[in-house]
Amino acid sequence: MQDIQRVLKAASWRLFIVDSFRTGVVTTTIVLVGLFCLRVAEKLLPVTVDWVLVFSLGSVAAVLGAFFWALARRRRGVALAREVDERAGLRETLSTALCVAGQADGWSRAVIETAQARARRVVVRDAIPIEAPRLWQAPLALVLALLCVWWLPRYDLTGLIAQKEKEEEQVRQVQQVMSEIKVDEQKLEELLKKAGVEQGLGDESDEADPEELTPQHVEDIRREALRKLTKVNELIESKQQSEQA
Fold this sequence. Notes:
mainly alpha
């Protein structure tokens, strides 16, 4: 039985590799379909995708899925022997030998001896060639489709993308205004110190969240900054008049 087991062991590994390629094509196709749909959704809807994370998870899922699927499909025992019989044209010689293994009658021994003789002549790499699986073009076609969609411009299907961009632009404007006002307040404080006025500006504005501010709030902030500038001028003039007196 050693010759039979040797052939079956080699065939088992080659069949596992072939099945891994087949299941890999299927899992890769499934992952690419998911990526394609996700990219289309990103083009049409106001969603943002972390593609580095998505590609990493997709790659791991495709590889592990193919491996464990092929492992679950791996043939053993009589099923493996029947596969080798079919591929090598042995007409159920090996599978029959496995079924009668351990029996001591003359017919069983003759079957086993015949199976061993035929197993010695089997070239496993010819019986089970490692070839590209069927439909291997499917992942390539999906990759091309994904690349085509990848560089297409976004289409605001729901109008939410434009609204989101408008809100982001408003936040940027508010941040810019807040930054300018902060710089102006520092300059006003320096003017007060140079003029010898110890009184501060007063009514210091609280730090506001730019996302919660509306254009009306921004205008109020601008008016408040103008009021402070007027107050500084009054303080400086009052200081100068008191010194002249």
